[in-house]
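BACKBONE GEOMETRY TOKENS
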Amino acid sequence: MTELRIEPPSQKTLPALLKLELQPGQERFVAPNVESLAEAYVTPTAWPRVILRGDDVIGFVMANFDPENELEPFRCGIWRLSVAAAAQGTGAGRFAVEEVAREALRRGWTRMTVLWEQGDGGPERFYLKCGFEPTGERLFGEVVGARTLTSAGSRR
């Protein structure tokens, strides 16, 4: 199997990224990639990355690293994650989460967050399997999950 990697969006990856198709019904749980890219463009602390298998774009992840953000859950965490329908269940999403964790650790963070909307077909089970635990807090109607980072790729 071809190895997974992430890289910043580029002119080469943009067309496929904008055409990325999720499983039916998942669109309600994540903003369109075009919206995420626009947000990344105007947010200097955003960290957008394309998920690739070989030369194929199979997903998108965007984190934020902003120690000054007034909202603690937005200081270090995943803002967006989408994996193409055909690539779901292959480890691409977990790989992206671990890459964000590695980057967070590299920047000196020991905790990262993610927000998710609950509902059938939503990402809650996935994030729980990745080690996030609900904090009991809700922002914008979404569950806030947090994960303690202990070393590259590991969690406590």
About this structure: The longest strand covers residues 56-65. Strands lie at 4-7, 46-53, 56-65, 76-83, 111-116, 133-139, 142-151, 154-155. The helical segments are 14-19, 33-42, 92-106, 124-129.
